[in-house]
Specification:
Chain lengths: 310, 252
């Protein structure tokens, strides 16, 4: 197995007072605390929450040729980290999430969660789909309850948690509503509550806010950041919006256009809570965008070329 | 309400023409009975309980045969839609078998089961099984894939995935096929009952023929139409509308 030394696993890293930072996120601790190392570094073996080990995926197109979608992707996500994955459309970033969720198998390589290889779906990793996939035949409450029902959680506990998570996303009043009666932003929050109710360690989000208007999106960014801080879960967030990535992520990974490879990684050492309009967020976003632009151009060229042939 | 008024006018006119034609005595009354004769036959039929028994027996067969075909059809449809090999082989056979009018199953059923209740149920089953199977298969294909993925993602698998996700997700797509299955089952049942001597509405109809009692023949025909319409128009259409409202397919 080809494994480059820098992402050898398990990872040995100095303990940065990460949890401390996390707890103080909303007490406006200076950002500098993130970057300063402890005076006397303590080393400990940290098993990454999610590790991708040389993941490749290829599939047959309808015309019969093999298309390489993901090419040798290795990535590690620390427990409690908020990782954003950005890339042009068609770079396979959604597919990557499906792989981690165990919804489809990779061609080669391994997905490890807590050091164990993933062999199928599991409620320790919940994916929020781009199209959400909320069940229209269930009420909001029924949707939130669904995962717990599948886990055979007792009725009393389910009831308690449904109430808790609906309150967390401010939808208590809409418990008995059906999905089609809700606005886009509300549906988004139902999906979030449904995912959180199974109490996953890892939350996988596939461009969840892409279809929303700017104001709703900003509100949901704040809520997501708050919920992330409250639950302490690990989030892998896929987006094509670099601004969003810089606003939310601890780290941003940039994928190349077809086949998807890791092009570059950016750590975002900015204090939380952040705002979309913050100058330093904008600056980080621009940095990522400069790097992304080539890939966008490539994807555009390919798409327009297709158009010309037809 | 306007539609209702139109319907009242239409049916009164129809009844008027019927009365007029009967009064003119163009055809003898034993071939073309007047409305009051048919009304009388209806009244008598219900008064001596023979119509009640007929309806009860027919509906019982219908419920058993149709329920069986729904359960079997769903299993078959599910098998065919989830297995490429079955889809290419059994799927084609099922579609071609659907061109066989269900009355063609009667000789086979009689030879297999004799003139028994099982034979009738078999004919009803075969009448609607294929529609339900094909509806289920189509439903599974038309159903957005996202629901299955979301279900698996939330920890559902096996029978629970089918029961709590795949089935409800494909319901709006299969309800039409279920309705069609019911209509086919209804037709095959009446046909089978006309051949078998075993109570039921079909047999009442044949009894009218045997007695040359045109009044009873028309009374039973009207009964069959009303019953068929009630189930199709009231139960299935209401179900369809409710489903569409709930799933947000039409503005509620």
């Amino acid at each position: 197995m080809s494994r480059s030394p820098q992402n050898a696993y398990p990872l040995v890293v100095p303990i940065v007072p990460r949890t401390g930072v996390r707890a103080n996120v909303f007490h406006s601790k200076p950002a500098s605390s993130v970057t300063t190392s402890p005076v006397c570094p303590v080393y400990e073996v940290v098993v990454p929450k999610v590790a991708l080990d040389a993941i490749s995926l290829s599939y047959k197109t309808t015309s019969g040729e093999r298309l390489l979608a993901l090419d040798n992707i290795s990535l590690e996500v620390k427990p409690g980290e908020f990782l954003c994955i950005v890339g042009p459309s068609g770079c396979g970033k959604s597919t990557l999430l499906h792989l981690i969720a165990g919804l489809c198998p990779q061609t080669s390589g391994k997905v490890l969660v807590d050091g164990t290889p993933v062999s199928g779906p599991g409620t320790d990793r919940i994916l929020i789909f781009q199209e959400l996939g909320l069940f229209p035949w269930l009420t909001v409450g029924g949707n939130v309850e669904f995962g717990m029902k599948m886990k055979n959680v007792s009725k009393d506990e389910r009831e308690e948690k449904v109430q808790y998570y609906l309150r967390l996303v401010h939808l208590s009043k809409f418990r008995e509503s059906y999905i089609h009666q809700l606005s886009g932003g509300m549906r988004q929050r139902v999906a979030l509550a449904r995912a959180l109710a199974t109490e996953p360690d890892v939350l996988l989000m596939d461009e969840p806010f892409a279809a929303l208007d700017a104001q709703t999106r900003d509100l949901l960014h704040d809520e997501l950041e708050r919920i992330w801080a409250e639950t302490g879960c690990t989030i892998i967030f896929v987006t094509h919006n670099v601004r969003e990535a810089a606003r939310l992520g601890d780290r941003v990974v940039l994928l190349t256009f077809r086949p998807g490879r890791v092009k570059q990684e950016f750590s975002v050492n900015l204090s939380r809570p952040r705002q979309m309009e913050q100058p330093d967020v904008a600056r980080t976003a621009r940095e990522i965008l400069n790097c992304l632009r080539d890939e966008i151009n490539k994807s555009m060229e390919e798409e327009y070329a297709d158009e010309k042939i037809r | 309400m306007k539609k209702f008024a139109k319907q009242i006018v239409f049916y009164s006119a129809l009844l008027g023409i019927w009365t007029l034609l009967a009064k003119l005595r163009i055809w003898p009354p034993y071939l073309f009975p007047p409305p009051w004769g048919v009304g009388h036959a209806l009244w008598d039929g219900f008064a001596d309980h023979s119509f009640w028994i007929g309806i009860a027996v027919t509906m019982k067969r219908m419920l058993i045969g149709y329920s069986l075909s729904v359960v079997l059809g769903m299993i078959l449809g599910l098998a065919v839609s989830s297995n490429k090999f079955l889809e290419e082989t059994l799927g084609g056979l099922l579609v071609s078998l659907q061109s066989l009018p269900s009355i063609c199953w009667i000789p086979l059923a009689v030879l297999w089961f004799g003139l028994t209740e099982s034979a009738i149920l078999f004919v009803v089953l075969m009448g609607s099984l294929l529609s339900v199977t094909i509806a289920m298969e189509d439903g599974r294909k038309q159903m957005p894939k996202i629901y299955g993925m979301a279900g698996r993602n939330l920890g559902a698998s096996g029978f629970r995935l089918f029961w709590s996700v795949l089935l409800p997700a494909s319901l709006p797509f299969i309800v039409n096929g279920m309705k069609q299955g019911w209509a086919f089952a209804w037709r095959s049942l009446i046909q089978a009952e006309m051949i078998f001597l075993s109570l039921g509405l079909g047999q009442l109809l044949m009894m009218g023929r045997d007695l040359s009692d045109m009044n009873q023949v028309m009374a039973v025909m009207i009964l069959i139409v009303i019953l068929g319409y009630m189930v199709d128009g009231l139960i299935f259409r209401t179900m369809e509308r409710r489903l569409q409202e709930k799933y947000g397919l039409t503005p509620a």
